[in-house]
Specification:
The complex is a heterodimer.
Chain A (H helix, E strand, L loop, with lengths): L3 E10 L2 E11 L4 E5 L6 H9 L6 E6 L2 E2 L10 E4 L11 H13 L16 H18 L15 H13 L5 E5 L7 H18 L2 E6 L2 H7 L2 E6 L2 E6 L1 H6 L4 H6 L6 E8 L2 E4 L2 E6 L6 E7 L4 E4 L5 E10 L4 E7 L5 E6 L12 E6 L5 E3 L5 E2 L13
Parallel strand pairs in A: 3-8, 3-9, 6-7, 7-8
Antiparallel strand pairs in A: 1-2, 1-4, 4-5, 9-10, 11-12, 11-14, 12-13, 14-20, 15-19, 16-17, 16-19, 17-18, 20-21
Chain B lengths: L1 H29 L2 H6 L11 E2 L1 H6 L4 H7 L8 H15 L1 E2 L1 H12 L2 H32 L5 H12 L7 H10 L6 H5 L6 H12 L3 H9 L4 H12 L1 H16 L3 H6 L9 H4 L12 H28 L8
Antiparallel strand pairs in B: 1-2
Helix pairs in contact in B: 1-17, 4-5, 6-17, 7-11, 7-14, 8-11, 11-14, 14-17
GO cellular component, one term (chain B): plasma membrane
Protein name (chain B): L-arabinose transport system permease protein AraQ
Pfam family, one (chain B): BPD_transp_1
Chain lengths: 383, 320
């Protein structure tokens, strides 16, 4: 168990700056997700933490100790790979036992055929077998121990990979998109299992994913990465409700947040010459943008501030998402509605929309969040 | 339908052309010299009793033999005794052509010794080739180092050098260090197989990087990765390489002929075939072809065994 400190880490491949000075403190026992679109540098950061790749500058500290220059095997970190990376020629039990064998047996004790007869090997092998059994029971794969990876389903392989990671009780677990090769249903189930495993082990987890749903559902904190930087690192609800950057707002949340270009002057915001119920700081003027989550919008009659036409409806049973093309705006906005409102949301219907002024998120022209007088700035850290 | 027919006809024709020499070899190894000369007797020959002329000639009785045999043939003249002895020798030297050919193959030359040499040489070559090629291929496929592409280009370049072009310098080098007429001379020049490095490198390129990273996380060093992870996953490719390597060096006539001069104890099987070269006393096609059959049999058996392994393969699906 350990805390991890990432201190101004940069990474450049030739002229391409992949990581631009990342700093992140991960407390002991925390589950931190690195989330972002592909190519944002999140996997590179994980590989740098693991020691599989060197950083260009900056430092990684595990329990306060700088591990730069220490090879991956000696950092006492476990990693689960997207492709599971199981040894295809070894059985499940042998796969799980590899990290223990490489650490606890001497080179001569690992030799084929004669290895088990070297003094001391017998006892060690018994201990290792017990540890493997225990790890397998934790993950409920003890009935698969004699199989080869080729005979396992994706979900089972994923568990074996987890077993191989947890068998040696590492300082921290690094997971690189471990669920992306699973089908949708299994992904939801395994998501819950990994979160549960984290609670049970109380270990530090660093989890890389491009799927914001995974990040939202499992993490203690989410670090949203884009273009080689961490834009925001906060608890999931904070990232969702109080994004500090328009890119964070757009990345987190499904369906995507609605962004409207508005005009600010004298503390008021206007969209297409309609004054919005959201207040702006007095000194703000010129074009800015507001973000409205689909659930912040509601159908309205007389008090509507936005008007438009329904162009597409998605009925998910428990809720309805309607895409509405606004008058005087080329984009569409998405509205989340209750199933009872199905009758008024047919394609071609003209609807009015309203929202609560405090629910709108205000972003400056540079994309940074502007706290409007409705909201008290939350105590969040920008990394 | 007719297109299929044509396809099969052409393929059958091709197969016949390839098989014909083998058919002749096996067939000759069954037949008597007379049948071979006259080209009769079908595949197996008639397997009539034949007389080994040389065996009879060796037992040609001289005066002492006749004298020694006199008590067995009382009341007979010397020439009668002599005829009787010759008749006995002819009876003893009679055998089926197949038995004749194969016993000759093993008795005329120390064929077992040659086969053993063949095994020692090909196995040593293959093992050392693996020891050299696997780490080299791993480095070329998976490690990043300055000049990697240049080194790989050199490997490709070496593929273009024909063996015969460098045979003389190699021979001179071996002679200078006094290694001619040793196993080392037969083995050492072949231990670095650029073809092996190239083939294994191409295979290692397909092994996912994650597997290697996982091995590093598990505490393996680079050499441990080569032997514990890459080698087992590369078994199908190694089998393919083994066929090329073993067949080439088992059948090699050129190189052993150059570096083994005189010492028959070092002869490899193909050199053994020379023993039946008909010099003065007529040709020995039957025993020669029997020897050839004995020499190729291990290869064919090995290939049939390996072929099954090829098809079963090691499922690499475990990686994805």
């Amino acid at each position: 168990m350990a805390d991890l400190q990432i201190d101004h880490v940069t990474k450049a491949f030739g002229d391409t700056q992949v990581l631009k000075g990342i700093s992140l403190d991960i407390a002991d026992g925390e589950f931190v997700s690195l989330v972002g679109p592909s190519g944002c540098g999140k996997s590179t950061l994980l590989r740098i933490i693991a020691g599989l790749e060197g950083q260009t500058s900056g430092a990684i500290r595990i329990n306060g100790q700088d591990v730069s220059g220490i090879r991956a095997a000696d950092r006492n970190l476990s990693m689960v790979f997207q492709s599971y990376a199981l040894y295809p020629h070894l059985t499940v039990a042998e796969n799980i036992s590899v990290p223990l064998k490489m650490r606890q047996l001497s080179a001569s004790q690992r030799l084929p055929v004669i290895g088990p007869f070297i003094p001391g090997a017998r006892n060690r092998n018994v201990e290792i077998a017990a540890a493997v059994k225990h790890a397998a029971q934790t993950l409920e794969i003890d009935n698969l121990l004699d199989r080869k990876p080729g005979q396992l389903s994706g979900g089972q392989r994923q568990r074996v990979a987890l077993g191989r990671a947890l068998v040696r009780e590492p300082a921290a677990f690094l997971l690189d998109e471990p669920l992306s090769n699973l089908d949708a249903k299994l992904r939801v189930q395994t998501r819950a299992e990994i979160a549960e495993l984290h609670r049970r082990l109380g270990a530090t987890f660093v989890y890389v994913t491009h799927d914001q749903v995974e990040a939202m559902t499992m993490s203690s904190r989410i670090a949203v990465m884009m273009g080689g930087e961490i834009l925001q690192c906060d608890a999931p609800d904070e990232v969702y409700n109080n994004p500090l950057d328009i890119r964070v707002a757009e990345f987190i949340g499904s369906p995507k947040i609605n962004i409207l270009p508005v005009e600010a002057s004298d503390g008021a915001l206007t969209f297409d010459n309609v004054v919005l119920p959201t207040l702006a700081p007095k000194n703000l003027s010129g074009p800015v943008r507001i973000g409205l989550r689909p659930e912040a919008l509601r159908l309205a009659g007389e008090d509507a501030v936005l008007a438009g036409q329904v162009v597409h409806v998605e009925n998910l049973g428990s809720e309805i998402f309607a895409q509405i093309s606004l008058a005087g705006h080329d984009g569409r906005v998405t509205l989340r509605a209750a199933p009872e409102q199905r009758s008024s949301l047919y394609i071609g219907a003209n609807v009015g929309l309203a929202f609560d002024g405090s629910a709108a998120l205000l972003f400056g022209s540079d994309g940074k969040r502007i706290f409007n007088p409705h909201t008290v700035p939350a105590q969040s850290e920008v990394a | 339908m007719t297109r299929d027919l044509w396809k099969h006809l052409i393929l059958i024709l091709g197969a016949l052309i390839v098989i014909a020499p083998f058919y002749m070899m096996v067939s000759y190894s069954f037949k008597s010299p007379g049948e071979i000369d006259r080209g009769e007797g079908g595949f197996f020959g008639r397997q009539e009793m034949m007389v080994d002329e040389r065996c009879v000639k060796l037992r040609d009785p001289d005066r002492d033999d006749v004298a020694a045999a006199a008590p067995r043939f009382p009341n007979q003249t010397d020439s009668q005794i002599r005829d009787a002895l010759v008749a006995e020798a002819v009876a003893d030297c009679q055998m089926r052509p197949i038995a004749f050919n194969y016993t000759k193959a093993f008795t005329e030359a120390p064929l077992l010794r040659y086969l053993l040499n063949g095994v020692i040489v090909t196995a040593s070559i293959f093992l050392i080739q693996i020891v050299v090629a696997l780490p080299a291929a791993y480095a070329l496929a998976k490690l990043k180092f300055w000049g990697r592409e240049a080194v790989f280009s050199l490997v490709l370049f070496c593929l273009l050098i024909p063996v015969h072009a460098i045979a003389l310098p190699l021979y001179i080098m071996l002679a200078k260090v006094g290694l001619t007429n040793t196993y080392a001379a037969l083995v050492v020049p072949w231990t670095i197989s650029v073809f092996g490095i190239f083939l294994m490198r191409q295979f290692f390129m397909t092994v996912p990087d994650d597997l290697i990273d996982a091995a590093r996380m598990d505490g393996m060093g680079e050499f441990a990765i080569v032997w514990r992870v890459m080698l087992p996953t590369a078994i199908p490719a190694l089998l393919a390489f083994a066929i090329f390597s073993v067949v080439a060096h088992w059948n090699d006539y050129f190189w052993p002929r150059i570096v083994v001069t005189g010492n028959r104890d070092l002869f490899t099987p193909p050199l053994g075939l020379r023993e039946f070269k008909g010099d003065g006393d007529g040709s020995f096609f039957g025993p020669m072809m029997a020897t050839a059959t004995v020499i190729v049999t291990p290869l064919i058996v090995a290939f049939l065994v390996a072929q099954r392994r090829f098809i079963e393969g090691i499922t690499l699906s475990g990686m994805k």
